[in-house]
Amino acid sequence: MSTQLTMRAGVLEAHNTPLRLATISRPEIGPREVLVRVRASGVNPLDTKIHAGAAAHARHPLPAIPGIDLAGVVEQTGPGVTRFKPGDEVYGMTGGVGGVQGSLAEFAAVDADLLALKPANLSMREAAALPLIFITAWEGLIDRAALKAGQKVLIQGGAGGVGHVAIQIARALGADVFATGSASQRTTIEGFGAVFIDRDTAVEIYVAEHTGGRGFDIVYDTVGGKVLDASFAAVRRFGHVVSALGWGTHALAPLSFREAKYSGVFTLHPLLTGQHRAHHGEMLAEATRLVEQGKLAPHLDPRRFDLGSAERAYDAITERTARGKIVVEIE
User: Fold this and answer.
1) Across residues 289-293, what is the average pLDDT?
2) What distance in Å separates the CA atoms of residue 52 and residue 294, rounded to the nearest whole number?
3) In whole angstroms, what is the distance from residue 52 CA to residue 32 CA?
4) DSSP of 220-231
5) Are 144 and 219 in contact (CB under 8 A)?
């Protein structure tokens, strides 16, 4: 166990200002918490929105340490923790919202329910890329839409973070998977095992071509806006549309005429409320199983970032130069 009492962290003091690399007190753990020595911090589009002050729903007061996803090593366990011991390699979606310290730091005090053992065949960098996107994809496909083998599933935005993981989950569970994207993303989408659909193709055309006009059993929208509207027109009768970005105003008539269901996914709820956190750990245990079976792998941007260059990692997302998940490594 480390006797280190301080740590380095990236601190956001005001929205739209550079992260400050600071030396601060190491967090103390409470009951049912573990102290994690962070080895890698995943960067998500939501992290950049919090940075910019454009994510009121995340309720993360400043100054704050950002970073939603982490991978690292258990340093110490608090009272009531039985699932983990010092030395365990773990990962999870553990903070960076709701006033909970994020992962852009050398240590984090983490609710043990939010963690799972890291896949043995992934590096810390690879593991830190997975939690938020896997949980979002799994909640939509399994918890909401109850995906079954043999169903036809359409992933809107198949090359994105949630999208490429959703393809792999659906494929692993025996679905027939299709995914939309730009022409430049075709190779990526097909590489994950989905039938590529150019996002500029009219809905009625690809529904006719791939489903005989009946529609898809499940449509998972990871884009929002007009793409969610198109999803209502792409689902079959009694089918299910799920969206991780269903925040706008939409006409429900196309969905109603098909007698189909709609579900939203709000992955932050357990972090913000403290409710149902154990399910996050359970979902990540499923991720570990799929990764170790060779059925799931994260797509990472090849660039390497550390605490000192974390601001550039955020820039890579806001400037849309990321070609896969961005991860900050913590030395």
Assistant:
1) 98
2) 37
3) 32
4) EESS-THHHHHH
5) no
